[in-house]
Amino acid sequence: MKIPVAIVEDNNDIRFALEQIIDMSDYCELAGSCVSGEEALVKLPILNPKVVLMDIGLGGISGIEVVRELKISNPEILFMMCTIYEDDEQIFEALSAGASGYILKKTPPGKLLDGIQELMEGGSPMSSQIARKVVAAFQNKKSDKQSSESALDILSKREKEILEMLSKGLLYKEISDAVFISTETVRKHVYHIYEKLHVTNRVEAVNKFFGR
User: Among residues 42, 92, 45, which one has the least CA distance to residue 64?
Assistant: First the structure.
């Protein structure tokens, strides 16, 4: 069964390009599109997509506000911000609102589709530029490094290797190619990493990795 994907984008050219990418995918299908945050608040619960590619700057209600409101009543919908914004405030506000991924509009189509698939597998896809900003923000926070090192000691060598790759923004498929294992095996390793570190997503795992 294909993954139903909805798009919220007010730029006609960008929205059309995203629709074309979804339509040409072997494992995604277009559930519908919205041109504003106001329209998204009404239509998305009806369209009931699995994944929403959400712009931030929509003119009226921002994409972040749409995510914040809809995530409460529709927790099963996975939101991936697809935006031009790279500033720390927008990134963390979007993640705090309930977004599960954050990629830039300049992301190549293949990597965008990989991100959608990873989102469905429980991952938190991020563009490498965004992942670096998340890491930098954690590095600026005070922490107890000793306790963090103790937490990482319980990870296997392979799990530490995969966690380091996650911290660099790599997708599951990219990790599987790098270490010559299947994406399903990567997914299982990530699950065990989250379980051992008592975290629920990539951002929290990276936080532990850098001792923050």
Answer: 92
